Amino acid sequence: MGTLLTVEDVTVRFGGLVAVDHASFTVADGTITGLIGPNGAGKTTLFAVVSGFLAPQRGRIVFAGADVTREPVHVRARLGIARTFQIVQPFVGLSVRENIAVGAYLRHRDRAEALAEADRVARRVGLDRLLHLPASALTVAGRKRLELARALATRPRLLLLDEVLAGLNPSEIRDVLPVIRAIRDDGVTILMVEHVMQAVMSLCQHVHVLAQGRLIAQGTPTEIARDPRVVEAYLGQGAAQRLVSGASGHG
Amino acid sequence: MSGASAYGSVLALAAGLGVLPVATESNVLLNFLVFMLIVSVAATGWNLLGGYGGQFSFGHAAFFGTGAYGMAILQERAGLNAWAALPIAIALGAAVGAFIGALAFRARLRGSYFALVTLAFAEVLRILANVLPITGGAAGILIRLRVDPWHFQFADQRVLYWVALGFLAGALLLVRAIERARFGAWLVAVRENEDAARALGVDALAVKIAAITLSAAITAAAGCLYAQKFLYLDAAIAYGPWISVEALLAPVIGGAGTVFGPVLGAVVLLGLGELTKAWIGDLTGGAVPGVDLVLFGVLLILCVAFAPRGIIGLLFRLRVWARWARS
User: Which domain CATH number covers B218?
Assistant: First the structure.
C-alpha cells in the first residue's frame, strides 16, 4: 500500500496565531484516515491547505508523488483531490441534480453524460429520490449528502470530508456510515475530520490527533483512545491521571 | 427541457417577431421596434455575465460604444466595407471585455466593486471618445449615407428590423447553447458559490473572463446595429450611461439568468416608457423629458421588492401557486 498524500512540515499563521505548527503526516492509499482534535486545533485549516484554499507559510503538500503546494484549488481537483465543506455550500439556486452535475462536468464534457453520472452518484449516496428538488429544500442531513455527492462526482482519488456527520442525529449517522465505507471500498482514499468518535472508531484505520496546531499522537483508533496525551488534549492537563486514579479509587 | 424544445422556443419567438412588420407599415412603430431589438441584444449580452455569471456590470456601454465606434471608424477612417467592419467591431468589443475582465477578476473584484470598476471604464472611454480626433471628438462621427444592402443600409426599415431580429435570434441561441453546455453549468456554479465551484475543479477566473468576453461581444454587436441604424454617434450616445442602465434593467426586470428575460424586460421597459411619455405629453400638453426614467426607477424598485427574479420568475411562482391552489 503506497502513500497517496504527504503533508510535510506545514505551518500556517494568521497574524500572531499559529493555527498549524510544523504538521507532518501521511495518508496511505485506499484507507480511511481520521484527523481529530479539540475545537480550534487547526483541523479545518489543515484541510484548507491540502485542498489549496490556503497557502501555508512553510512546508509542502505531496499528492500521488507530485508536489502540489503551489497548485490552485481547481488544478488539485483535476488531479483528484475533492473536499466537502464543514459549513455546507450548496448551489442553492440549482436542483440537487444540477448541483451534482457541476462536479460531474469535471470528467464529462457532454451534458447527457454529466447528468447520467450525477444520477449514478445520487444513487450511491441515497439522494436519488430528491434529484429534482431545489438544493434549498434539503434538510441538514440531505445537504451533507449533497456535499458528499458533488465531491464524489469529480471522481476523486482523495476525498477530504470535513465533519460530514456533524449536525446529524444518531439514526442519520448510522445511515451514512455504510455510504462512506462503500466509497472507500470503491478505491477512494478518505481523510476525514470528525468529532463523532463512534464514527471515527468504526471507520478509520488510522488516526492523527491535532491539538493547538501540533500533531500530538497517531495510531489505530484503539491506540489513540488509550493515549493519555489525547485524553489530556480533550479534557485538560492531568485529566488522564485523574481518570486513572478515579477509576482505581472506585475499583 | 429536451434539446429540440430548448432551441425551438427561441426560433418560435423569432418567427413570431418576424411577422410583425407584415402587419404594419408605420415607420414610427418600426423605428421603435428596431430600437427595442437593439436594446434586447445589448441586454442579452449583459444577461450572460450578470444573469448567469452573477457579475453585475454597470458599464456595458464600454462594449456597446466600442462596437458602435468600431463600425463607424472602420468605415469612415479605414474605408472598410460595413460587413467587413462588423466582425472586427464585435471583436474589438470582446477585446475590451477581456481586458476589463482580466484586470477586475484577477484583482478578485466582486459585487459592487466590480460594478464600480466597469462603470469607471465606460466613463473613461466616454471622456476619451469626446476628445480624441479619431472618434470625431465632441462633434461626433457620421457614417456616410449610402443606402445599399452592400453598405448595411436599407431603404426599407423592415429589412433592418429583420437583420436586427437575426442578431437577436443568434444571441439568444448562443445563450441557450451556453446554458446547456458545461461552460454554462460552471458559470452558474460560480454565481451561486465561487468557493464551492473551485473545489469541484472549476477555474473560476477563466470562466468569468470567458463570460465577460462573450457578453461584451454580444453587446458590441448591438452597438454595431445602432451605428448602422442612426448613422451618427457621439460620446454621450455610444458610451453614455443610458445603454449601461437599459442593458442592466431589461434583464433584471424581465428575469436575469433566463434566456428570454432580457427580451421581455426590453419590451416592458421601452413599451411602458413610450406609453408614459405619450400619456404625460397629452396630459400636460408638452413632452416632459426624463419621465420614462422616473418610471424605470419605479419599475426597478417594484421588481427588487416583489419579483427578485423578474417577471419570468414571478410568472413561474404564480404557476406554482396555481397548481398548489388546484390540488
Answer: 1.10.3470
Helices (H) and strands (E) in chain A, counts: 10, 10
CA-CA distance, B281 to B229, in Å (whole number)? 26
Domains of chain A: 3-250 (3.40.50.300)
Q: How far is B180 from chain A (nearest CA, A)?
A: 7
Whole-prediction pTM value? Answer: 0.92
Spatial separation of the C-alpha atoms in residues B39 and B266, rounded to whole Å:
7
Q: What range defines the domain where residue B63 resides?
A: 3-253
φ/ψ region of A108 (left if φ > 0, alpha if ψ in -120 to 50, else beta) reads beta
CB contact under 8 A, B202 and A101: no
Contact yes or no for B60/B286 (Cβ under 8 A): no
- Please state, in angstroms and rounded to a whole number, the distance separating the CA atoms of residues B51 and A183: 37
Coil vs helix vs strand at B153: coil
pLDDT 10s digits, A90-107:
999 899 999 999 999 999
Alpha-carbon dihedral of residues A72, A78, A79, A85, nearest 10 degrees? 70
Instruction: Give B19's contacts (C-beta < 8 A, 6+ positions apart).
Output: none
Task: Return the closest-CA partner of residue A149 out of A96, A79, A81.
Answer: A96
**Phi–psi pair at A210, nearest 5 degrees:** -115, 130
A152 CB contacts (<8 Å, ≥6 apart)?
A82, A103, A121, A124, A125, A159, A183, A188
Q: Which residues of B170-209 are buried (b: 16+ CB within 10 A; e: fewer)?
A: bbbbbbbebbeebbbbbbbbbbbbbebbbbbbbbbbebbb
C-alpha cell at position A107: 470528467
Query: Which candidate from A73, A92, A114 shows the least CB-CB separation from B192?
Result: A92
Q: Cα–Cα distance between A25 and A2 in angstroms, integer?
A: 14
- Please give the Cα distance from A234 to A143 (Å, whole number): 29
Tell whether B299 is covered by a domain. Answer: no
In degrees and rounded to multiples of 5, residue A54 shows phi and psi of -130, 140
Chain B partners within 8 Å of A93 (Cβ): 188, 191-192
Q: Phi and psi (nearest 5°) for B219?
A: -70, -35
DSSP result, A100-131: HHHHHTTT--SHHHHHHHHHHHHHHHT-GGGT
| Pairing mode of beta strands A58-63, A66-67 | antiparallel
> Which residues in chain B are contacts of A78 at CB distance < 8 A?
201
pLDDT beneath 50: ranges in chain A = 251
ipTM: 0.90
Residue A251: what pLDDT? 40
Domain count, chain B: 1
Considering only CB atoms, B199 lies closest to which of A73, A92, A109, namely A73
* Residue B36: C-alpha distances to residues A1, B70, B267 (Å): 66, 22, 7
Q: pLDDT above 90 covers what percent of chain A?
A: 79
Q: Where in chain A does DSSP place strands (E)?
A: 3-14, 17-28, 32-36, 58-63, 66-67, 81-83, 158-162, 189-193, 206-211, 214-219
CB contact under 8 A, A82 and B200: yes
